[in-house]
């Protein structure tokens, strides 16, 4: 598995991956409207080339995209040292270390960008993801009560953060 920057030609496959992950029981945030369209995803990936404060990486397993990492730096000057992280791995490829590879890439991107803290939200019932994040070094910072609306109900999200160690050089 190779971790590489996403390209605009990955848009269709990334939309398919997000749709598949979104259909899982207890899935993240997809509504009946679904993920972005292929055209929207393609435009988003193209726009990233002009925006150094965000990035999308993919886990490429022999031409099959099996994971996605998205990173976006907080635009506010007082919290410009913080970036949001989103991660998904295809159900067929979980438990193989791909999440860890994507988190390694997130930490490398953060160090290069001067980001000191990575943040993410995770549903309380997503125990495998919570274990992955904690093993990597993320800590729980709190619970955002009724933070998301999902299937007509309000659900909590656990806020987790990783303090990026300075580079070894």
Question: Can you offer a commentary on this structure?
Answer:
Helix content is 29%, strand content 35%. The protein is of the alpha+beta class and 169 residues long. The chain has a single domain (2-163), classed as Aminopeptidase. It has a seven-stranded mixed sheet, with helices on both faces.
What is the fold's blueprint, element by element?
Layout lengths: L1 E4 L5 H12 L15 H11 L5 E8 L2 E10 L8 E8 L8 H16 L3 E6 L4 H10 L2 E12 L2 E11 L6
Helix pairs in contact: 1-2
Give the uncertain stretches in residue-range form. none
Mean pLDDT across all amino acids: 90
Distance between the termini: 27 Å
Instruction: Kindly state the number of beta strands.
Output: 7
Any idea of the CATH topology? Aminopeptidase
Q: What level of helicity do the residues show?
A: 25-40%
Given the helix and strand composition, which structural class is it? alpha+beta
The total number of structural domains is 1
Major sheet: 7 strands, mixed
Give, in order, the helices and strands.
EHHEEEHEHEE
Q: Beta-sheet strand percentage?
A: 25-35%
Main β-sheet, spatial strand arrangement: 1-2-3-4-5-7-6
What is the top-level CATH class? Alpha Beta
**CATH architect. name:** 3-Layer(aba) Sandwich
Question: Globular, elongated, flat, extended or rod-shaped: what is the shape?
Answer: globular
């Amino acid at each position: 598995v190779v971790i590489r920057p996403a390209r605009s030609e990955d848009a269709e496959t990334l939309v398919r991956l997000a749709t598949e992950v979104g259909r899982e029981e207890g899935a993240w945030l997809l509504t009946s409207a679904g993920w972005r369209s292929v055209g929207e995803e393609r435009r988003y990936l193209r726009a990233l080339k002009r925006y150094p404060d965000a990035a999308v990486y993919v886990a490429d397993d022999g031409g099959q995209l099996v994971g996605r990492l998205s990173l976006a730096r907080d635009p506010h000057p007082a919290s410009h040292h913080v970036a949001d992280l989103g991660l998904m791995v295809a159900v067929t490829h979980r438990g193989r270390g791909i999440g860890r590879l994507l988190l390694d890439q997130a930490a490398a991107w953060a160090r290069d960008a001067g980001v000191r803290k990575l943040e993410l939200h995770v549903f309380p019932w997503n125990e495998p993801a919570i274990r992955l994040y904690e093993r990597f070094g993320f800590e729980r910072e709190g619970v955002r009560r009724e933070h998301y609306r999902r299937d007509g109900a309000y659900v909590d999200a656990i806020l987790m953060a990783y303090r990026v160690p300075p580079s070894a050089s």
